Amino acid sequence: MPSITQANSGLVLALVALGVVLWVGGHDAIAGRLSAGQLSAFVFYAVVVAGSVGSISEFLVEETVTGIVAEVLVSIRRAAPLGWLVTIGAGGVLTELWKDTQSLLAPASRNDIETAITKLRIAPILAGYRGKPAGDVTALVDFIEHLQRVVVGTNMVEVELNPVLVTTSAAIAVDALLIEEA
Q: What residues are paired with 85 via a beta bridge?
């Protein structure tokens, strides 16, 4: 059981951290590197973290993905009586908004996957629309081919990865739904 000293030290640590956020953030706001709204958001999050510091037992550190060109949906599922179905489409919030998908019977060939990607509404974005950097479509195709090899023929009912972040040099799944047959 935590002692009063341990509880107080956690509170002191949280208050010191909040003070540092205010001190550094205040200087950044005065220097114009941070807007008042951004400082308010940082202070709000610092207060939330300070309030919960005693209950944190684990945390997760993730790499920040940069150079994102597009978010893509990649799904492989069993679709009776057809067999396995690969679905590729606009990912993230665009999935429901655009309903921009292409479906292929698995195992789909590399050429079929590439053709399906070119038929998507997000294809121009992946290609580097209006001078923006192009996404690494080869990495996306490699990713989909590998996912097919891993999923097709298993006891999985569905694997949906949304979004798969397509960057200028990679395709990275950041969220997954896996449904396995019991």
A: 77, 105
Could you give the CA distance from residue 66 to residue 59 in angstroms, rounded to a whole number?
Answer: 22
Specify the pTM: 0.68
**Residue among 147, 148, 125 at smallest CA distance from 137:** 125
Give the residue from 182, 165, 86, 87 showing the smallest Cα distance to 126: 165
Query: Where exactly are the structural domains of the chain?
Result: 4-55, 68-180
The CA dihedral of 135, 141, 144, 150, to the nearest 10 degrees, is: -130
The domain over range 68-180 is classified in CATH as 3.40.50.1980: no
Please write the tens of the pLDDT for every residue from 133-169. 999 999 999 999 999 999 999 999 999 999 999 999 9
